[in-house]
Amino acid sequence: MLQKLRNRAKSWVAIVIIFFLALSFALWGVQSYLGHHTADAKVATVNGKAITGKRLKRAYKIAEYKWRISHRLALPSSNDRAILKARVLQMLVANEILSGAAQRAHLTVSKQQAALWLHDFPIFQQDGKFSWSRYQNFIDNFASGSEVTLLKNVQEDLVNAQFYSAFSDSDFILPHEIKRIEQIVNQKRSVDYLLLEKTSKQPPISKQQISDYYQQHQAKFIQPERVKIAYIILSSEEVQKHVNVTEQDITQAYYQHTSLFTKPARYQVIYWDDQASKWTSPKWIVLNQLEKIDQQNLLELSSGKTFTLSAKHPYKKLKLLKIKSQQVIPLKKAHLKAKLLAKQKKLQQNWDNLSQKLAELTYMHPKELKTAASQLGLRLQTSDYFTREGNKDGITAIKSVLQASFDPETLDKGNNSDVITLPDQHLLVLRILAHQKSNIQAQKQVHDIILKQLQATKQREQTQILARQIMSSKYSALKKILKQHRLIWQHRQLERQDTFMSPVVVEQIFSLSPRKPWHGMWLDNNRYLLVRLRHIQTAKASIEPGKIPKSFKSKWHLPTAYGEVAALLYERRLWQKARIVVDPLYHKQQSLQLSNMDQQNKPD
Fold first, then answer.
1. DSSP 48
2. HSE, side-chain direction, 13 A CA sphere, residue 237
3. How wide is the angle at C-alpha 508 spanned by C-alphas 507 and 514, nearest 5°?
4. Between 185 and 507, where is the model more confident?
5. Reduced to 3 states, what is the DSSP secondary structure of residue 120?
6. Across the chain, which distance is largest between two alpha carbons, in Å?
């Protein structure tokens, strides 16, 4: 059984196992934070086994953390928290139901099998091999330092997964079922469709409707706190404009940094190659190519003499042939390099002076930036209004600028900000030009927004009313409606792989039945698609009795798919038979009902 699970490590069985493991690991992961606890009030019982409030709380903390990661660290609302707690409780109930059924079925997994599974688990692999350091780190951080606890929980989770594997590995499919599946998959459908455009005529909206909408949706019109800033930027480009290098500057840079214009002494040497039993061809080297001890020996060596190299060197001996003393490059040849050095030095000096002057001027004149801008030759710029969230681009998208803009020193006291270093290494100083506190916008300010919203809603309603009229009308009345609105039926025969319409539309068309032949859906804000099923053409079976088509083999493993359905039906039966009792006090305190849990997580 374990080998089958391992062979299908990428299948849904592995997903089930990882689900149970993740739940167990999540519960262990918070134990070190919560510390030792005693038994507390039970939130629910499953077949007589209690699920405690503390256990639910531990599981919820991890679920909330994952929820925040998927929602960009936003805090869940009270409604989201209620839904999340219901889902976590349902997950714990499902685990208890399967564990109980596994015990009754006498399903077991040995410690050795659990250890083998952990050995192959992806999070413990490094460079394709089992990593003891990762394994031990996981135990220390998530399993309270206990390998025994880890193995015990993995055993339980693998036992639960055996249910699904047992069904999927043992089910079969009959020839007539294969034939029926092929007929359904390859069927064609003929449909009529209409594309209803929203009317371009703007429906009348009264002042009272606008006022009512404003009163009922004031939360939509809350204007967040905003500021508008003035700022100056000192850039390296501005500094470069004022950098002029004279010949005196070049000469001074040359003599101050003579070492940069000096060619080091070079030594022509040969090495003794022990393996070849001969001297190598001559090579020119500099001192820093040798170890320090060998450098000293070379300095003391005269031409034609040899010495034994250090153990780190690949050759055994070195013989000196010639020496070329160090040479200073004349200024005439090094002029360009010296000029660049002088310019770089002067640029740095100017930058230091101007940045210091920028800091001094904006500090000495804390209530305005005009003086600093004038004396430094910088342009005084202004921004549009922005909130604490900032904008998508520009300087108001930079975190340090946002922090300075809403800092009490600049926002409340009206002082210039400190000098801010931007990502491109430019320097910026800002001050607040205007500050708007959070408030509800007046109805006059949002009048046009509300008007457009109500008109769009009215247009959508009119389009949907027309769609309902078409779907409910008989032949003569339908013909009249189509003529009145200048609509013409379009016809199309579709296959499941058809790309004429979007996959969502095709999926909806293939979910229609003769009893419910109509379907309508918005394609975008302006177009409504209305589809009517005309005919279903069943495909002919093109296979020999009992053989699975090759096209099926690449997409589905049919016996496994049947087994998965059987597993879900079995799990549904376990839910129906389980004695699940949720504590009434928990219902009252948390406003949760097990029956209101998200049905998509419960077996159908």
1. T
2. 3
3. 120
4. 507
5. helix
6. 117
Query: In the 8-state DSSP scheme, what is residue 407?
Result: S
H/E element holding 314?
A: none
Residues 68-80, mean pLDDT to the nearest whole number: 70
Q: Which two tokens stand for residue 188?
A: 């064609």
Distance of alpha carbon 110 from alpha carbon 482, whole angstroms: 71
- DSSP3 helix / strand / coil % (the chain, rounded to 5): 50, 15, 30
Residue from 176, 225, 229 nearest 416 by CA:
229
The neighbour count for residue 313, using CB atoms within 10 Å, is: 14
Q: How many CB atoms lie within 10 A of CB 394?
A: 12
Q: Give SS3 for 308.
A: strand
Place of tokens 């389980």: 578
> 22: closest CA among 123, 164, 125?
123
Q: Give the whole-angstrom CA distance, residue 44 versus residue 55.
A: 11
Cβ atoms of 508 and 519 closer than 8 Å: yes
Lowest mean pLDDT among 55-64, 144-153, 473-482: 144-153
Q: Are 67 and 76 in contact (CB under 8 A)?
A: yes
Are 234 and 451 in contact by the 8 Å Cβ rule? The answer is no
Mean pLDDT is lowest, of 32-46, 71-85, 269-283, 467-481, for 32-46
- Reading the block at residue 415, the tokens are 């002082």
